[in-house]
Amino acid sequence: MYAANSLVVMYAKCRDIIGARTLFDRMNERNDVVSWNSIISAYSIDRQCVEAFKLFSDMQKTVVGANTCTFVAALQACENSSFKKPGMEIHAAILKPSPVLDAYVANALVAMYVRFKLHPCFAASGRLGYLLNGKEIHAYAMKNGLDSNLKIGNTHIDMYSKCCCVAYVGLVFYKMLNKDLISWTTVIAACAQNNCHIEVLKLLREAQVEGMEVDAMMIGSTLLACSGLKCLSHAKEVHGYALKRGLSGLMLQNMIVDVYGSVGILIMRLECLSRKNVKI
């Protein structure tokens, strides 16, 4: 049992969630709290929050009693305010056996509720352009170790972008330990919208090196940068890449037309328009 639990933890730390789950499902006996804690923690670390909650719920239906590690792992899966309902259900489950809280569980609860508040606060600061308020919330998140949260990090980037503070956009992005598609899309869009055109091209190449799937939104932001640079070679390269990857859509097609118009290539623009079946 101990060896199996150790292997589940090892697979989780190696980001092999499939291996961890396969091993867990093959265990003949799952009546040990360590087994459940290991797999719930694995999904929580991998940010597969819904599955972490499902496993926590499944555990509640067994004879295995949850302990401090169980509750902390489940609470850590509550990444933002969209998980408020399951978070409050976990809180209720914690209080059911005893109203006295373990210090680790209490800290995890506080951190969860702070995350619920930080996410909308950052979004509001960005929408309203309140840079000072955004910086204060960011400082609070850093002080409490919450800036490592992926979704909070992504919200930081979006907030600084909307406040036209590009220096902080890059600072937050490169300090993030984990980045997902939203992280890359948001930082590239932020640089494009704030006229950091060279940085956009650099970030796109970095995303490709990291093996990130480049989507139509990233290409659209990159085309915006090409337009700003008035560089035909970059525009053609990005256009070719989009065609090769089969990326399309009316918005992307419009941007391709616009970028060729901005670099003064009338023939290419007319050709793109004809492909869209637009009357001139």
UniProtKB/TrEMBL annotation:
Transmembrane segments: none annotated. Keywords: Repeat. Gene3D superfamilies: Tetratricopeptide repeat domain. GO terms for molecular function: RNA binding. PANTHER family: PENTATRICOPEPTIDE REPEAT-CONTAINING PROTEIN. The keyword Ribonucleoprotein does not apply. GO terms for biological process: RNA modification. This is Pentatricopeptide repeat-containing protein. InterPro entries: PPR_At4g14850-like_plant, PPR_rpt, TPR-like_helical_dom_sf. The keyword Repeat applies. PPR repeats lie at residues 32-62.
